[in-house]
Write a structure and sequence with these properties.
Length: 298
């Protein structure tokens, strides 16, 4: 009987190894699912929430496909729930609603990773049950008909052979567990690295936003001061023309130097300075020509 028990053990071990190897492929997209959904939940506007949720759709779908193949049912269920939540997030029209569903997707992603870890450490009995196989005895078969077969049976039944074979399989399973733990560690390191990069990018974006706000305040102050000063210059030129009895044509000397806030919002501080300097030069040039014309007629 023991002679046929070991082939069954070997077959079961292959099933375990195959299931683990297949499920291993799901760890990378599972880690990205967690990263994407966490970034979505932490985003401060609806556009970014939905942008990260859309990325999570692809990784959830990949995990679901892999876990269905390796029969990790719980993980595939959570992958489906996460995909559905991320999909609903894209359908929302407000930040609060989209963020609510991004949180649901994030929770499903974390539960999915936990379920995936359990599947990768599944026992032989659970693999046998999930595959629908049973260990059967073939002692009734007329398989030992000669002395050589009987000798082989006795050898395979010896305590030394059983212990060595069992130790070999235990060591190989333990090695695979260690390799899996190392892969999980690498994935977590990669996840932390991605999150660190995103945090740095967020900090840089916030810094640029504050710098732009400060620059826009300076542009607004420049707008008020420059338009007031230019208006005074224009009035002084007009008074001077009146003092020498020179007729003034308003349309001829018109220069538009007033601007809206929207106009300066689309440019930087240097562009705003250049605009008002050009308007001063334009006014000076027009009035200089007018002075020359009036003097030539007197």
């Amino acid at each position: 009987m023991l002679k046929y028990f070991f082939p069954i053990i070997a077959f079961t071990f292959i099933a375990v190894t195959y299931a683990q190897k297949s499920c291993d492929d799901a760890f990378s997209p599972a880690a990205y699912s967690i990263a994407h959904t966490e970034n979505a939940f932490e985003s401060t506007n609806m556009e970014h929430v939905q942008e990260w949720s859309e990325k999570a759709l692809e990784t959830f779908s990949e995990v679901e496909s892999i876990t269905i193949d390796c029969e990790c049912t719980e993980a595939s269920d959570y992958a489906y729930k996460g995909y559905s939540a991320a999909e609903k997030c894209l359908e929302q029209t407000s930040w609060e609603e989209s963020r609510y569903y991004s949180k649901k997707a994030m929770e499903s992603a974390r539960q999915m990773m936990n379920a995936l870890s359990l599947c990768s450490n599944m026992s032989i009995e659970k693999i046998m049950a999930s595959k629908g196989r049973k260990r059967t005895s073939r002692t009734n078969n007329n398989y030992y008909e000669n002395d050589s077969n009987t000798s082989n049976r006795e050898y395979s039944s010896s305590p030394s052979y059983n212990n060595d074979n069992r130790n070999y399989k235990n060591n190989e399973i333990e090695q695979q567990k260690q390799e899996l733990l190392e892969k999980q560690k690498q994935l977590l390191e990669e996840q932390r690295r991605i999150q660190q990069q995103l945090a740095q990018q967020k900090t840089l974006t916030e810094k640029l936003r504050r710098e732009r706000e400060t620059e826009l305040l300076r542009q607004k102050k420049l707008k008020i001061n420059a338009e007031t000063a230019i208006n005074n210059i224009k009035k002084n030129y007009e008074k001077l023309l009146h003092s020498i009895d020179c007729n003034i044509d308003i349309n001829e000397l018109h220069v538009n130097f007033y601007r809206e806030i929207e106009d300066i919002s689309s440019e930087n501080l240097e562009d705003t300075k250049t605009f008002y300097i050009d308007r001063v030069n334009e006014i000076a040039e027009k009035f200089a020509l007018k002075f020359a014309d009036c003097l030539s007629q007197q």
